[in-house]
């Protein structure tokens, strides 16, 4: 389903969706098609679902015209060990 269709069906609310079609452009993920898992009525519940989401699922608000997510690379953690002889 296109995001514009989701916005019409569930105006001004959070929805739990699964990404179906997307592309990367300038370190941003542009999601084109999604499958609606379910609408979420309460903002508190939306936070819980957001942190529990996995496997391409995420929570987004339909007030946004497009789904564009900034992708941040996690820097490698370097540890320096002080070896004394």
Strand order of the largest sheet: 3-1-2-4
Tally of helical segments: 2
Structural class: alpha+beta
| Apparent shape | globular
Q: Could you describe the largest sheet, including whether it forms a barrel?
A: 4 strands, antiparallel
Work out the radius of gyration: 18 Å
Arithmetic mean pLDDT: 86
Give a count of the beta strands, DSSP E runs of length 2 or more: 4
Q: Uncertain runs with pLDDT below 50, 5 residues or more?
A: none
**Span between termini:** 64 Å
Strand content: 35-45%
Provide the domain count: 1
Residue share in helices? 10-25%
| SSE sequence, one letter per element | HEEHEE
How is this structure best described in words?
The protein is an alpha+beta fold and 85 residues long. The protein has one domain (3-70). Helix content is 20%, strand content 40%. The chain has two helices and four strands; from the N terminus they run αββαββ. The chain has helices spanning 3-9, 43-52, and strands spanning 14-25, 28-40, 57-61, 67-70. A four-stranded antiparallel beta sheet has the order 3-1-2-4. A hairpin with a 2-residue loop joins strand 1 and strand 2 (28-40). The longest helix is centred in the middle third of the chain and has 10 residues, at 43-52. The model has no long low-confidence stretch (mean pLDDT 86).
């Amino acid at each position: 389903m296109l995001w514009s269709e989701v916005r019409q069906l569930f105006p001004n609310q959070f929805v739990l969706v699964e990404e179906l079609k997307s592309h990367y452009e300038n370190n941003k993920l542009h999601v084109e098609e999604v499958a609606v898992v379910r609408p979420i009525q309460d903002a508190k519940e939306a936070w819980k679902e957001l942190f529990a989401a996995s496997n391409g699922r995420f929570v987004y608000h339909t007030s946004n015209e497009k789904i564009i997510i900034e992708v941040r690379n996690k820097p490698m953690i370097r540890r320096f060990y002080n070896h004394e002889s």
